[in-house]
Amino acid sequence: MEVDYIIVGQGIAGTMLSYYLLQQGNTVVVRDKYQPNSASYTASGIINPITGRRFVRTWMIESLMPFAENAYKTLEKELNIQIFQQTQVIDFHASTQMHLAFNSRLPEEKEYLSISYQNNQWNSAFNYPFGVGIISPVYLINLQKLLTAWRKKLQAQSLLLDTFFQLNHLQLFPESIQYKQIKAKAIIFCNGIQAAHLPYFNKLPFAPNKGEALLLNIPQLPRQFIYKQGISLVPWQDHLWWAGSSYEWSYNNHLPSETFRTKTEQQLQKWLLLPFEIKAHIAAERPATIERRPFVGLHPYFPQVGILNGLGTKGCSLAPFFANAFSKHLITREPLLPEISIHRFQKILKP
Ligand SMILES: Cc1cc2nc3c(=O)[nH]c(=O)nc-3n(C[C@H](O)[C@H](O)[C@H](O)COP(=O)(O)OP(=O)(O)OC[C@H]3O[C@@H](n4cnc5c(N)ncnc54)[C@H](O)[C@@H]3O)c2cc1C
């Protein structure tokens, strides 16, 4: 069998890259071992234009957000699913300092920040002694539904193999690769944090990061918003709420931890006034990078091997934009942005 590209991994990176490559008339085969504890299946799916304790705009959000909206809405139509929701973050300030930081940003960030004129509106549901602000618009993507629907579509066309990729079966030739029975122009790794163990990419400055969330039943909480006070409460599939997350840099395994569960339960008991029940606890590793920018492109010394990775905490907004840019680059060699191209690591990638 011969195809243009083999893609390893069908998280949000592999989903978007296979989508754009197919759309542009290429042939692809995706090899992905389904693992429910991957980053994309664990993520809450938020695209929030504002970040951090100083309430600043996230990198490139003016380009990323409209692109993502268009991409997810197009996929909704093509796959006949509902995955895109425009919403707001109701930001209950966690301290006087956070309240002051929010209010000092208000005059200069009118596009995304505002205050609620009905400050008492949430009195019966939350405890919020330091006030409340609103971040809007914020997008919420149902990644689980998208990944499952795209997987089914690929499987129906025999374009997805649900097995592990094994490096010892990969052979490189001057202008092609062979993986078992499949020949291709190139193989592209969209395998999340597992790429940090591949000899082609293990020198890239990955900064693996663990995140956990509790899945809750909160029957009385209105589902049209995301609520935040240190942790976020996000409307999740099956009428559940996603409560998280942590950002752990040092850990022994990527399993749910008792420490996170106890801490989050205590936080919820202080903040949330409505009855809740913990139904599940999930955890995954984020493919984060030291300089918080993605890794995109063909290897400078093995141009038959590529990568779309390092999406960190922002897979939902970064994946559509940079998968599209990478697919164009593969076809027309249109240059990639220097900040995301792996050619910025040419020196350290030298074999
Ligand atoms: C708790 C948590 C909350 C998050 N919340 C958000 C959020 O609200 N918004 C946001 O934008 N981002 C969020 N993120 C980050 C987001 O999840 C990631 O940026 C994104 O999912 C990374 O996608 P990926 O496709 O690169 O990797 P992954 O999702 O890890 O996908 C990699 C795929 O490759 C497969 N694979 C790996 N190795 C092999 C192999 N050898 N053979 C075959 N298949 C293989 C895996 O099974 C998997 O399917 C969150 C992450 C976590 C952990």
Properties at a glance:
D-Amino Acid Oxidase, Chain A, domain 2; 2 domains; 7 helices; alpha+beta; 9-stranded mixed sheet; binds flavin-adenine dinucleotide; 351 residues; 19 strands; FAD/NAD(P)-binding domain; single chain
Write a concise synopsis of the structure shown.
The chain has 351 residues and is of the alpha+beta class. The chain has helices at residues 12-23, 39-42, 61-79, 96-105, 143-156, 258-271, 315-332; strands at residues 2-8, 28-31, 46-47, 50-51, 56-57, 84-92, 113-115, 132-141, 160-161, 170-173, 176-179, 182-189, 209-217, 226-229, 231-235, 241-244, 277-286, 295-298, 305-309. The strands form three sheets. Strands 3, 6, 7, 8, 13, 14, 15, 16 and 17 form a nine-stranded mixed sheet that branches. Strands 1, 2, 9, 10, 11, 12, 18 and 19 form an eight-stranded mixed sheet that branches. Strands 4-5 form a two-stranded antiparallel ribbon.
